[in-house]
Hints:
The protein is of the alpha/beta class.
Amino acid sequence: MARMHVVALLLASACTAADPDPGEDFTGPGGPDGGQTGGGDPGGGTTAGVGPYFSQAMFFNRDVSAVAKATNSGSLLSTLASSGGWGTGRMQIDFAIDVLRADASTPMRTFTPTDEFYSPDCDHVPMPVPAGGNVEDESGYACTGDGDCHLIVFDPSGKNLYEMWRANITSTFQGGCLAVWNTAKTYTDTLRGDQCTSADAAGFPIAPLLFTADEVAAGHIDHAIRFILPNNRVKRGFVRPATHGTATTGGANAPAYGMHLRLRADYPIDSLPSEGAKVVARAMQKYGMYHADGGNIALTAQSDRHTTAKWQGLLGPLDLQALQVSDFEVIDHGSAITLDYNCDR
Length: 345
């Protein structure tokens, strides 16, 4: 674990100097919320259903539209706004992450861990690699642009969701942190393990928090949404439902990893420029969005490369730019937890 601690600090320092990915900080991968099973929300709320991907209720399934906001909501958001707010100064959408689908015939491949694989946080097991697939922001499996290169594969027949950070498949298969999620499991409040990372810095699963063109085209998103912030605007530590954070440099009054934001109920959604933007905003009012990783482009949607509906004419990258930090409220998840990198699985 000492090695993981040093690597995380070095990566965080490197991304402060120069971020090779304009969307997400190159800090590496980072659950759980307040003592309820299934990743329940300690702030209250009701479970509206299950999915996507998971057959048991998770923290992102909870309807929090009627939950009281945190008593320090105003001060947290004021600090975030005064430090620059969203990463680019406006709410923008990144459409780079793909989710691939495997079946029982998909070949399983082993990988050689890189120095971005942390033990015991990450899983060194074979994972399915579908033909014709790709890693994040690439046309194939080669990580040519030195980005985060997430490789995400859902295997419904095996009831597993495989999420790898910094995958690179050429003549060999090399990979950073792989987090394997059992999609039939009822997870406790520590998800895969307290103080443990996943393919995201906060320790969350990524795929279930991405909104898709198919969901937006259908007119509803039935889960919370992933969002990211620059690490210099986040204080060290994390709050539930996160299980991990990274070497952030925000002040003592800044928000922590795992912060849960909800769009104010009185926000004038009809003023947004597209129907797609209105669908996303309504999900933000009902389920909210969770701070999951470090970077500049606030919202993460799933790429439409492998979906039926397409983003063109449905939702643009700046359709939600009117949403300011002050338009949100913080859901209370208790005091920040000290980050010590001592993953307990």
